[in-house]
Request: fold
Amino acid sequence: MSGEQVASEPFEPVVIGFTCNWCSYRAADLAGTARIKYAPNVRLIRLMCSGRLDPTFILDALARGADGVLISGCHPGECHYVDQNLNTLRRFRMLERILPALGIEPQRVQLVWASAAEGTQLAHEIDRMVEEVRGLGPLDWPARMAAAGGRTGPGVSPVGWPAGSRGEPEPGAIKGATEPPGVHA
Amino acid sequence: MSGEARPTFAMYGAGSCGGCDIAVLNVHEKILEIGAAFEVVLWPVVMDAKYRDLEARPDSSIDLTLFSGGIRTDENADLARLLRRKTKLLVAFGSCAGEGCIPGLANLTPPAEILDTVYETVSTENPDHLRPGTQPNPGGPGQLAGFAAVLRTLDQVVDVDYFVPGCPPESPRIAEVLDLALAALRGGEDLPPRGAVLGAGESTVCDECARTRNVKQIAGFRRIQEIDHLDPTLCLLEQGIPCNGAATASGCGALCPTAGAQCVGCYGPVAGAIDGGARLMSAFASVAQARTAEEMDRILDGLVDPIGQFYRFGLAKSLLRASRSAWAAAGGEWGRR
Reply:
């Protein structure tokens, strides 16, 4: 994403924005309808509730090349699903405690509450965060992993245990015996 | 018994503590059965063997290799590739080979800093300033294996047929896996799909734990040694002990919580989890009794080592895998090996 920057091309950060269907996504929509400009660096993803936001999504975004992640949901007390946004808050505070050990600055992952009426405020917060991330420079996680000889390939999940790995036995011969083993430099 | 007729077996430890080898030897009388059923061709902990003998073997001539340990040095990576070439069923055996385990936590630290600590601190006598990659006997044979920027899991270096989690895997699970492999090698049993996790359950440690569980509301975390009286029958997490059982794969029989210690998560993430640490964070966040950022911070202050809590075993196989400072070294002299 922000991999190899040509010297003449300024760094344009990519910020993934997770928004809630009932408030912040509508706030962004309102900003658009009202012709309020905000930085195009943010890529908004709509969830039904910010409480759906698994910390996995945030780490995955960073691992795949995002320079920052914006989390946005309804103000506490205004959640469409009673109090699921408090789950978001708790997960976010927890994630904040592990990011420094990984060398990720706190400004790269931010939580912003925005109601459906707060288009102007959300646009302002997006602009502010994009400028903060711009100041920090590229995070560049995929390029860093590639430099260390990380490998992905067929039959091997890049992370986690292989999907569906504990299913029913597959009929057939011993897999390792019939398929040529892969060796990777 | 004719050696030719028996399936061939190898076990090797790369960046590991040797505990996995001990765990295999700890299968009690089953070890006699293993010894009778397999022809052991390489197992440095048990018998002498030379790498050159291994190299001389035809490719795919070892039926089953249990590979323990993460890939940290050139030698680890070379042996992983060599054993992959020589082996039909390559098993990432134990937490280190599968997800990095404790040695994987070194991925939080830049390699130069690790080597300074190991080779140059005041308690170390190293007059020749030997380091990985240098020759201990100038002009003579031998060279210390080079040290990579980050620790990799076995499947980040070569294709792996099966994973057996655990630090170390528990003896009954090892026996099951060996029985399955033996049956398959004799042609009597189908193996699960390649890449499967063997020797672990579909569920979580909580499901194997006999402690009573209620609706969890955690008002604070405390370390187990700070508590005078633990309820011996109540869920440890409900007592404020940061127990990782909720997001850890079953298979151990909930040994630690049964003995009164929290689950540390050595059996790896539960089936289906992409990032075990993220799954644990979600689990802990959903039981924390906090409605404001301040309340949550107060609860989290009780977790003394958050990244060690959530990624103690799985950092090297997590989504981010290493800290930025460790990755930064990968581009330079610590580059790809």
Observations:
- Residues 171-185 of chain B form the longest helix (15 residues).
- Chain B touches chain A through 79 residues (CB under 8 Å).
- Chain B has 14 helices and eight strands.
